[in-house]
Amino acid sequence: MGLLALLARVILGVVFAIAGVGKLADLEASRKSMIDFGVPAVLAGPLGILLPLAELVCAVALVPNRTASLGASGIAIMLVAFVAGMLVNLARGRKPECNCFGQLHSEPIGGKTIARNVVLLAVSLPVIAAGTNPSLPALPSFTRFEAWMVSALSVIGLALLLTLWLIIHVLRQNGRLLLRLETLEKTVGIHPSAPPLPGLPVGDPAPALRLSGLDGKVVTSETLYADARPVLFIFTELGCGACDALLPEVSEWQHEHAERLSIVTVGGGGLEANIAKSAEYKLKNFMLQVGREASEALKVSGTPSGVLVRDGKIDSPVAAGADQIRKLVTMATLPPAAKKGDPVPALHLNNLNGEPVDLSSFRGRRRLILFWSPTCGFCNAMLDDVKTWERDRPVDSPDLVIISSGTVEENRKQGFRSQVLLDPHFGAGSVLGANGTPSGVVIDEDGVVATDVRVGAADVLALAGVTLRKPTT
User: Fold this and answer.
1) Do 247 and 281 touch, CB atoms closer than 8 A?
2) What is the distance between the alpha carbons of residues 166 and 171, in angstroms, rounded to a whole number?
3) How far is CA 100 from CA 21, 28, 277, in A?
4) 164, 18 in Cβ contact below 8 A?
5) 55 near 158, Cβ under 8 Å?
6) 254 pairs with which residues across the strands?
């Protein structure tokens, strides 16, 4: 019994030292977790501080033999309270984040978290039963100097174990960040061996320009850049069929996004022909360059092309072709990014039937937003799990909304029962903080972002209370 109790003390000490330090590192999350578990807001703040302190005190109390039983008793009381709180919330159909290890690890409560606490409760029993039993290896059997040395080494050992835990956590986090970066690079078409992006470097000061309006007045870049809105230069040319096909959309953008974006069409060629073209498509801010001075200054080599300038600095590489210009307009007119606790901003995406859906209209029920790509291998690896959850979804689980890239046909082949919205330029992901696929975030009944963005099949399905049935690679 003595050796078993000593081993139990080490396990409990390490676990609760890590838990206490993790919670103290993110007190706001601890307070939020208290509120999610049903603690009144007025008590959540103090208890969010007292709980990790109590965990640390009990962990330290496990070191000396004479206080080990008291430390284990305190831990047992906390574990019973944890399990009771989880059972009450699960009975009410709620799965708040446990925040068990604070900044280090957090997950929705469920059978796994309850089982873990029950096991730890069982581990505490031998220590409580041992009390101050002389048969237990005890510090008082050493000299005073030896006792201090053993105590110091015990604390150092716990610190080393905690450091090892932190290193492993950081390495795992870095691995996830690298995967996100790789996914983001694939999303925007960046490859490590790819040639430099066309145009001036992003962040460089925008060059000085002198353009002529259709009324003959000279307009300088100082006037254009003084606008609080970002400026999108769209370069066209007479006789360019792709340019003519894009101009109706340019006119729509100038009216639809007038509050967020200033669109300047830059043309070449004869004045009369450009006046006629501007009138035909009802274009505003149509400017002329005498030769190719503006194109050369912004390093634009073809038409149609676009360059975004924000606050007097280059804000994008050259967008060559209609599709890239559309993407640039989408990204330039996105609403401000929303984080956890913010309402979802207005953003219109089309469903598979071509009907627009406003994300800010999602109210009345919790919704799990799943960012998806039909060509993403990680997405397709979890497809069966998502379909199984759709088919057997519990009544109290969130509705699923899939925001996907790809064509209508590609997304129809996926066979989802849930609503699918098309987002070819990943604009919604940028607004809600998602950097790749698969990733997910929950929107609550009031249309507020309720969780941080989760990345990867297991973490995304955990938002829906689902355990991944098979590993994804």
Assistant:
1) yes
2) 9
3) 11, 14, 65
4) no
5) no
6) none
Sheet of strand 439-443: strand arrangement: 356-358, 348-351, 419-422, 399-404, 367-372, 439-443, 454-455
The per-residue pLDDT for 42 is 78
> What gap in Å lies between CA 13 and CA 158, rounded to an integer?
8
Mean pLDDT per segment of 10 residues, for the chain of length 473 residues?
Answer: 74 85 79 82 83 88 84 90 86 78 70 88 85 49 60 63 61 64 57 66 92 90 87 93 94 92 91 91 91 91 93 93 92 89 92 93 92 92 90 87 92 93 90 90 94 90 72 43
Render 76-110 in DSSP notation, one character per residue: HHHHHHHHHHHHHHHHTT---B--TTTTS---B-S
Please indicate whether the domains covering 210-332 and 348-463 agree at the CATH topology level. yes
Cα separations in angstroms, 1 against 61, 115, 128, 238, 387? 19, 24, 11, 91, 50
The CA distances from residue 152 to 64, 149, 157, 159, 473, in Å, are 11, 5, 8, 10, 44
- Bond preceding residue 40 cis, omega within 30 of 0: no
Under 8 Å CB-to-CB from 311, ≥6 apart: which residues?
225, 230
Whether 441 contacts 373, CB under 8 Å: no
Q: How confident is the model at residue 136, as a pLDDT?
A: 45
CATH homologous superfamily of 348-463 equals Glutaredoxin (3.40.30.10)
Tokens of 331: 């990204």
- Write the DSSP symbol of residue 332: H
> CA of 54: how far to CAs of 57, 84, 137, in Å?
5, 18, 25
Report the distance separating Cα 294 and Cα 268, nearest Å. Answer: 10
Lookup result for tokens 């970066």 = 181
CA distance 44 to 410: 47
| Alpha carbon distance 357, 426 (integer Å) | 15
Per-residue buried b or exposed e for 268-296, using 16+ beta carbons within 10 Å of the residue's own CB: beeeeebeebbeebebebbbbbeeeebbe
CATH fold of the domain at 210-332: Glutaredoxin (3.40.30)
pLDDT in tens, 269-307: 888 999 999 999 999 999 999 888 999 999 999 899 999
Query: Which tokens belong to 34?
Result: 């208290």
Q: Give the pLDDT of residue 467.
A: 66
* Selection from 244, 290, 295, 288 nearest residue 266 by Cα: 288
Beta pairing partners, 319: 306
Write down the domain spans for the chain: 2-184, 210-332, 348-463
| Secondary structure (3-state) at 348 | strand
